[in-house]
Amino acid sequence: xxxxxxxxxxxxxxxxxxxxxxxxxxxxxxxxxxxxxxxxxxxxxxxxxxxxxxxxxxxxxxxxxxxxxxxxxxxxxxxxxxxxxxxxxxxxxxxxxxxxxxxxxxxxxxxxxxxxxxxxxxxxxxxxxxxxxxxxxxxxxxxxxxxxxxxxxxxxxxxxxxxxxxxxxxxxxxxxxxxxxxxxxxxxxxxxxxxxxxxxxxxxxxxxxxxxxxxxxxxxxxxxxxxxxxxxxxxxxxxxxxxxxxxxxxxxxxxxxxxxxxxxxxxxxxxxxxxxxxxxxxxxxxxxxxxxxxxxxxxxxxxxxxxxxxxxxxxxxxxxxxxxxxxxxxxxxxxxxxxxxxxxxxxxxxxxxxxxxxxxxxxxxxxxxxxxxxxxxxxx
Length: 380
Hints:
380 residues, alpha+beta, DNA polymerase, domain 1, three-stranded antiparallel sheet, 14 helices
């Protein structure tokens, strides 16, 4: 027997033996407040069972707020700057004000569900989108998962809570004609090469802006994607890509190789004109003085070029979708497209481009109908 029940005043308490501490003294833990002896005995039985099977966690007095502060400090070396910045913002604006004073050991699923509901409805004056609440849930789940591993809590209560379902933004893709019209109009803009690479490689904006000449082999037509450009408190920083799949080699068409050669020659002229004022970072795409691209300027040129071309307005990220969709239409295998985009799994690519795949399935069905029933009957 690892414990016993004892009456203290009008209530019953449970005392359980936890072995010896580092000084060789016996350790006991009291749990009080039970109305009846039977209730206390049931609690003791469950407690002894947990101790025997190793799932018992001694309750911590640490609050949710203090734990999250400690967790964020430990995560600094693991997270990319923008992710860490987002987690700190979510913690300071939503976790600490709403759950900060709750003892970590007392945190229940209802606390999280109530928080998500209030943020979704704006019940307390602060309303968040479903996507932002999902980000909050992912962060909380990760933090509590580590608390379980550290032995601070016995279970991750976030696993028992249903976050809101996020309705994916409908992506827009251009046709070949729209791509050609846009590229023709965009030629006069400084960041034409950024647009061209986005369309012809499917690279992300930050990857293209972090691209250096050392990453490109013009003889083989290969681009090695290694890093991205981010801004930290207004200052540019180059970050290594976080996954092995993101770090990839992308082949480019001979026409793009020719454009890159012309672009490099023009950049060399700018460097001569600027002289000592030129800040050479070895970037393929940069400002006139060699400094990394300022995203707001790039976005302005992106919008103006679309307007000038008279094409449907889409997001810059939709150039990545356009690249993949055009590859699908050409019958390029899913695995190759996934590797080209730097997706961790082919299933991610398939989920994103289901609409394109469905069109191909429809074509297969029509082709089979024609084969089996003939062109006239198949058309009906």
